[in-house]
Amino acid sequence: LFSLSNRQYRSTTMIWLVALLVSLVTISGTMSDPDECRKNGDLLYQTLGCIPTKTKPEDNCASSYNCSHLEEKGDFCYFQGKKLKIRESTDDGGACNGPCVCSDNSNFICPAYDCAEFFGDLLLPGCHRTYKLGQCCSSGKLCPPFDNIATCEVDGEKYKEGQKFRPKDSCKECICEKGFNGKFEEPYCKAPSCETEVRHSEDIKNHCAPIYGNPNARCCPSQWLCPNDSHVFTKEGDGNGKVCKFGNKEIENGNVLKTTFEQYGQRSTLKCSCELPPFISCLVEQSEWIHLTKN
Predict the structure, then answer these.
(1) Is the pLDDT of residue 25 over 50?
(2) DSSP the chain
(3) Does residue 228 surpass a pLDDT of 60?
(4) Would 274 disulfide with which of 109, 117, 244, 248, CB 3.0-4.6 Å?
(5) What would the pLDDT profile of 179-189 be if each residue is shown by its tens digit?
(6) What span, in angstroms and rounded, lies between the C-alpha atoms of 194 and 62?
(7) Is residue 216 within 8 Å of 251, Cβ to Cβ?
(8) What is the pTM of this model?
(9) Which residues contact 247 (CB under 8 A, 6 or more apart)?
(10) Nearest residue to 198 via CA among 72, 89, 67
């Protein structure tokens, strides 16, 4: 056995502390930041149960995804990577749906929740609905005087207890609750589970392109661009080897489609390209409401 002097002990302790800090910095540098990868559109692929592929093992985000299971044909449905038999139910259909059933045409039939706010349930002036994280329908109401309730300030906006909010450039959905300290994590925030397969199964089968409104947070797409004969891609730069599928065509990275899209009373200008295979992704560059006039 041997003993260390106080000076030697302090020196040895400092060496170990420095080594620990270096290792922590190294580990944190290689950990994936979910919001960073959301910029690429990975939330959709994770919901679909696709397998990520990275260019380098130390990369934070995937460079492409393997969704080969979606190419299978037969009397079954896929939900979040799990194969379901005809008439088999999902455990959950999403925040606003009950469990969904795989139908005979390999699509889903889902019961929708009837929330009071969907049917004109009025609020008194100054009142607001309250929500719970991950739930579709409101859980109650709060009215003045607002004594001893939580308030949250995020991105320059103020929210009262029970109100929903989404941080800027993030896919996370949050609820203002007591104890919120500005960190977008559970039990106050979480990333949504996209209802893509139950709402857009045909778009997936037809290799349509998801449409995103925010380039910094490509969350659950509610609109898809499906291919037609008028869609022509033009080469705008050298490709990086990535290849996406759009309908029956394979589109290499570096090729771009610029087109317009109309739905839900809006006309949008889109720019579509192969960024994170296998789906082409489209970004909204400009959008305007379509004013319908009578002749």
Answers:
(1) no
(2) -----HHHHHHHHHHHHHHHHHHHHHHHHHS--HHHHHTTTHHHHHHHTPEEE-SSTT-SS-SEEE-GGGG--SSEEEETTEEEETTPBPS---TTB---EE-TTS-EE-PBP--GGGGT----TT-EEE--TT-SS--EEE-SS-TT--EEEETTEEEETT-EE--TT---EEE--TT--S---TTTEE-----HHHH-HHHHHTT-EEEES-TT-----S-EEPP-TT---EE-S---S-EEEETTEEEETTEEEEEEEEETTEEEEEEEE-SSTTB-EEEEEEEEE------
(3) yes
(4) 244
(5) 999 999 999 99
(6) 19
(7) no
(8) 0.81
(9) 206, 207, 208, 226, 227
(10) 89
User: Long-range contacts of range 29-32, CB-CB < 8 Å, 24 or more positions apart?
Assistant: 30/58, 30/60, 31/60, 32/60, 32/61
